[in-house]
Amino acid sequence: AAAEKGGWSSFMAKEVSEEPEAVANTIRGRIHDSAVVIPELDGLDELFAGTERILVIACGTAAYAGQVGKYALEKWARVPVDVELAHEFRYRDPVLSAGTLVVSISQSGETMDTLMAVKYARERGAKTLSICNTQGATIPRESDAVVYTHAGPEVAVASTKAFVAQITALYLLALHIARVRDSISAADQARHVAELEAVPAKIAHILEHEQERTTQLAHWMADTRSVLFLGRHVGFPIALEGALKLKEISYIHAEGFAAGELKHGPIALIEPGQPVFVIVPSPRESSLLHDKVVSNIQEIRARGARVIVIAEAGDAAVLPFADEVLRIPLAGPMFEALLAVVPLHIFAMGLATARGLDVDQPRNLAKSVTVE
Ligand code: G6P
């Protein structure tokens, strides 16, 4: 096993280090003349032109990737999107029509809850598209179309590189559909393509420059009993994913919230010393969202929270209110999701390691849940 880990202390550490390639390999062969053209979706233009609604179904981390993808699919392809947990979808007599495109997301392609939901949707006349990391798995075989993520085999139970590859595939799908539906200009398409292509180097930059500090922070926090995560826009599902990762491998209570929801309840949880991660949107791209999140930070700081901020390089507005600042490179509004999650993966791994836990094989969990 040591050889398989290629010198890394765990599969998870190896797989986090492979996040840049996971994104790059998922993009490869899918860009032509500064526009997204996914060869596997050739011949489906009519389907995409007639799509009235997209329903994303998945479980666990894949469902959070779906929630991130919703922002891009709606913004760029201008199709209404709902994201639903596969096991909830199937048992509530959902409304489906021929204009519904069901997009399933699964790393393994074998998750029984997701598979059953895909079959159910197909039997009721919806078209199904699978985003999957495992060639020839059951879910892609049961779907009308498939867009593979090329993250490579993922061994650690907690998903990391597959998650960034899933978001990448969803952004590619959104841009492919946007091109077919002509819902964004060629210039915007090219701008987003350039942003996407720049992501692998930016993730590599975070791994190189923030890994040590983030791991150190995790070690200092080894005895923490609860950690909260706040985010807005695509930062919201990233906050949920940051919390899930911590629960899965460090067994610490963790919860993610939409930053705007703070005043509607979660702020009651803030007491002196409570660690809170806050994912801050770029001030260049949306000063409105940025300023709202900065004021959330002020509110929790005033109540004694220990604030760990994930913010764009150069964002000085967060400095007076943050106990720790983890920096991510500059990126467009959708793309910061792919960057902000990286320190959260490193943090969860560092904290589990500091607690002496097996990060690859957390208790009670299986990599692929093949029972309903
Ligand atoms: C299990 C794993 C999770 C994973 C989920 C969905 O619960 O422990 O890490 O996110 O299944 O798996 P899938 O293979 O469908 O992406």
From TrEMBL:
Residues 44-183, 217-362 form the SIS domain. It is found in: Cytoplasm. Its main location: cytoplasm. Keywords: Aminotransferase, Cytoplasm, Glutamine amidotransferase, Repeat, Transferase. Its EC number is 2.6.1.16. The keyword Iron-sulfur does not apply. It is an enzyme of class 2 (transferase). The active site is at K367 (for fru-6p isomerization activity). It comes from the Bacteria. It catalyses: D-fructose 6-phosphate + L-glutamine = D-glucosamine 6-phosphate + L-glutamate. Catalyzes the first step in hexosamine metabolism, converting fructose-6P into glucosamine-6P using glutamine as a nitrogen source. Homodimer. This is Glutamine--fructose-6-phosphate aminotransferase [isomerizing]. The chain holds residues 229 to 600 of 600 of the full protein.
